[in-house]
Amino acid sequence: MKIGIDCRLLGPEQGGLGRYIEQLVLHLSLIDQENDYVLFLRSENINKVKIGNEHFKYTKVLADIPWYGWREQILLASIIKKAKVELMHFPHWNVPLFYNEPFVVTIHDLLLLQYSTRAASTLGPIGYWFKNLAYRIVLRHAVQSAEHIIAVSEFTKQEIIKHFPQTTNKIFIIYQAPSFESPANVSASQNTIEKFGINKSYALYVGVSYPHKNLAGLVRAWKLLVERHGNDYQLVIASKKNYFSNKIEKIVQEEKISHIIFTGFVPDEDLPALYKNAALFVFPSLYEGFGLPPLEAWIFNVPVVASNRGSIPEILGMGALYFDPESIKQMADVIFQGLINDEIRYELRLAARQESLRYSWSKLAAETRAIYEKIFHKR
Known about the structure:
The protein is an alpha/beta fold. The protein has two domains: about 1-175 and about 360-379, Glycogen Phosphorylase B (Rossmann fold, 3-Layer(aba) Sandwich), CATH 3.40.50.2000; about 185-360, Rossmann fold, CATH 3.40.50.2000. The protein is about 45% helix and about 15% strand. Strand 11, helix 10 (about 295-300) and strand 12 form a beta-alpha-beta unit. Helix 1 packs across helix 14 and helix 6 crosses helix 9. The longest helix has 21 residues, at about 125-145. The radius of gyration is 21 Å and the shape is globular. The termini are close together.
């Protein structure tokens, strides 16, 4: 079977979605020696994809088209059709409306339906209205026309069913997994810590800065923590600099919140060191379809405190201490307990080891391939 995968968003620069695509392709290459794959890539990542397994059959096709725009809707479908794939996998909801061949789509969340706010956009009111309308049209096409839908959690599955009940019988849940497998070496860790100006024990956040990530709430909870308990700790926010991260930095400056470090985007060679040396990982999101960073923190034996919203309790189970993300006081209290209470920290680490056994990229690749095969044999 000839299978296409839209890899335009591949790479850690694109957050959890980029990691998902990267790891999916990598682990398919380790288990599938039968099918032929066509990877559709942009100019900035086409040369970065190099598969080490010589038995994995694949070709790379340049699809240098930005995501979420009109060119994606009109031009991408024709590029895919020229490649003559028998099945296409779109790892995100942005499926071209004019693509009418068999495809699988992965839905990570329904953020723009459930958390629709212009604060999450740089557009004006009219532009945002059109963007939201386009999202709803494209999403509806994606879930209704797909042969099968991959949901990244039970939470996301139920969100899809709530809005599109006719899709119930074609949704399959496939969990993701952390991307790092071993800690950074000690010398590299120390160099990284010094590079970012970290000089105290610290709590860590890794991820993007969009409003639903609730970083405004996090920095205000940190302000309360410092006011109550002193400045023995730093908060390190590892997030790519953009319009939204600038707004968080502005809050920190205007409200005179101290002991916070913004690292900007952290490449994969440095990120393990940040995890390894952290005293605590904090995940304050208002909405998540899955949420990879806490699982990455688990690898480095870092205790996790997290929001009780969205899929987070499903994914983290007993491996996190939870707080209401809309309560600044509760968030500050839970973060502080996660930093200083040795009994809680021990229990969280113990539970995380057990919970982490549920997640494997190899398992994800095998289950995804099984869906491909199921569609092929059904036709």
